Amino acid sequence: MGLTLTIILGIVALIFLIVFLYYVPFLLWLSARVSGVSISLIQLFLMRIRKVPPSIIVNAMIEAHKAGLVSVRRDDLEAHYLAGGHVARVVHALVSANKANIDLSFKMATAIDLAGRDVDEAVKMSVNPKVIDTPIVSSVAKDGIQLLAKARVTVRANIKQLVGGAGEETILARVGEGIVSSIGSSETHKMVLENPDSISKLVLSKGLDAGTAFEILSIDIADVDVGKNIGANLQMDQAEADKNIAQARAEERRAMAVALEQEMKAKAQEARAKVIEAEAEVPKAMAEAFRNGNLGIMDYYRMKNIEADTQMREAIGKPAAAKAAKKEK
Question: Is the entire prediction scored with pTM above 0.85?
Answer without folding.
Answer: no
